[in-house]
Amino acid sequence: MIKAIKMENKERQTFGNVPLVRGWDFKPSDYADAWKNGTLLTAQIENTNICNCDCEYCFRGGNPPDKDARFGNEITKEQLLQAIDEMSNLGVRTINIIGAGEPLMDKGLEGLLAHISELGIIPILATNGSRITPDLVKAFEKYQTSVILKLNSLNPELQNKLVRRSWFAEKRDYGLRLLLEAGFNQPNENYRTRLGINSIVFQENKGEILDILSFCRDNNMMPVMSTFIPAGRTKERTDQEVSMGEFLEISKRARKMDREKYGIEYDKLLPYLGGVPCTQCGKSSIYLTISGDIFDCPGQLHSYGNIKDTSITEAFKQNKSVNGNSEFSCPPRLDYWNRTHQFVQLENI
Ligand SMILES: C[S@@+](CC[C@H](N)C(=O)[O-])C[C@H]1O[C@@H](n2cnc3c(N)ncnc32)[C@H](O)[C@@H]1O
Ligand code: SF4
Ligand code: SF4
Question: Of the ligands numbered here, which is closest to the C-alpha atom of 231?
Fold first, then answer.
C-alpha cells in the first residue's frame, strides 16, 4: 500500500526558482488546468529499439541492446505518426523521445522531430549523446528540440564501464561540447535552458552526485537525477541501487548546496533531486512504447492496452480515471520502495 507523502502547504507543490528545460517548464497551474480540462500535457514515445551501448542498469527490456534487429512486434513509423497526431488533438504540449534504445540510431529521427515541431509541440530528446554531429545539432536547432544527455560519471573510466563501451565518454563529451557551443544551455526570454543531464543515482556514482549537480548548475543544464525506475534490468532489487533513505540524504545535501551556493530554493526531494518535478506520470501524460503498448509512464505502474487494439484517446481516458499524482511525486518508485520495505517518511530523514 502506497503511503502518500503529505505536503504541508500549497507552497511545497511549486517549483521555486528551479531552472527547467524548455518543454519541462510547466507551472503547477498548467497541470491543474490540463487535469481539469481533460487535456494531455506531455507524452513519452519511443522511436527505435536499437542501441549502441549496453548499460548495466537499462530499463528497457527485450533484445540485447547491441542487436540491430527490430522487435517483431514494433509499430510502424506511420502508426507512430498517427499516434502523435492523436496526442496533438488531445492538446499535448511536449513529446519526450525516450528510447526504447538510443533515439539517434534511428535514421528517421529528423523526420520525427519535424513532424512533432510542425504540430507546434516541443520535442525533448533523451540521448546517450555519443552520435551527435554538427548536422544533428542544426536539426535540433531547426526543430527547437530540448536535449537531455546521459552523464552518469565525470570519470571517463567509470562512465565507460557503466555503459560497457570503451569509446563512450569521449564521444559523449564531443556531443556535449557541440551542444554547448551551439548555445543549448543559454537562457532567453522564453526559457531557462534547452539542455539537461540525466544521471541515475546508484552505488557506483553516489559519491560524485554533488559534483555532477555542480557541473549542471555551473553550465545552466537541468539535472534529471533519481534512483532506478523499477523496470527492465532494474525491475527487481539490485545490489547497485541506493535505498530511498540514502537517496533522500543525498538529495538533502544537494538542496543545501543549491540554496547556499546557487540561490536555488525548493522543498521537493522527489522524484528528482535538485527540485525538478516529474512532468510525466499520472497527471496528464501517456507513454507509448515501440511495441505500441500504452502505459502511464516508463515506471509502467498502469497499462492501457496497445494502439493496435485501442486508441490513445481511450487509453488517456482510462489513465485519468486511475491516476492523480497531484503531489508531483513518483508512484512507481513509491510502490517499489513499499514493496521492498525501504519506505521512509520524509519527516524521518
Ligand atoms: C532508455 S534511455 C534512452 C535514451 C538513451 N539511450 C540514453 O540512455 O540516454 C532514457 C533515459 O533513461 C535512463 N535510464 C535507463 N535505464 C534506467 C533505469 N533503470 N532507471 C532510471 N533511468 C534509466 C537513461 O540513463 C536515459 O537517460
Ligand atoms: S540506458 Fe540508453 S544507452 Fe544505455 S543501454 Fe539503455 S537505451 Fe542504451
Ligand atoms: S512517475 Fe516516476 S517513473 Fe514515472 S515518469 Fe515520473 S519520475 Fe519517471
Answer: 1
